[in-house]
Amino acid sequence: MASDDLDNFFTRLSRKRARDEEENINHITIILGMIASVIAMVGTWYNKNYLVKELSRDWDEERRCYLNGLYNGKEVDCIEQLRVSKRAFKSLCIILHKKGGLARTRNVCIEESMAFFLNILAHNLKYGIIDFDFYRSKETVSRQFNSVLHVMMRINPEYLKLQSCVISGSEIEKWKWFQVILYI
Question: pTM above the 0.85 mark?
Fold first, then answer.
């Protein structure tokens, strides 16, 4: 009998411990849920009040759309921005590629390089303006401008005919101060 009472006592004690443990687990779960809710509310409040909201932009897509508007858009836009017609632009790109050796780089196509070059010359722009419009770094704009310039200089004798500067008569007196420059 004493053994049965002892077994009952231990059984009741283990059941009570199991109930207490389950209650403790429930209390801990509730407390952790409340802490997570408070952290989420504070994070939401901070995000709403202090973080700068800016839409992510796809610079490559915007650049492609801008360039597509230049060379495949309206004729007027191409003439206004690049000072050449679309047909002249495309044939100039072909000439510079085939005869001048202008090559596409990993990130910049020949048409984009030509657009940099013509835009800078047509509007007397600085690299900083072009890098903003074309979403490129100043270094990229500079490199591409110089590569197109070198190719232009390479095909210069074939396509550009320079006239000699002959000064005669009354104009000699006007230009005598610039003799060093004129004869160099």
Answer: no
Helices (H), the chain: 2-50, 59-71, 75-82, 86-98, 110-123, 127-134, 138-159, 171-175, 179-182
Q: In Å, what is the CA distance from 34 to each residue of 27, 30, 31, 39? A: 11, 6, 5, 9
| Alpha carbons 16 and 4: distance in angstroms, whole number | 18
* Contact assessment for residue 93 and residue 107, using Cβ atoms and an 8 Å cutoff: no
What is the rounded distance in angstroms from the CA atom of residue 114 to the CA atom of residue 92? Answer: 9
Give 29's DSSP letter.
H
Q: Which amino acid is at 69?
A: G
Which pLDDT band holds residue 173 (cuts at 50, 70, 90)? confident
CB neighbourhood size of 136 (10 A): 21
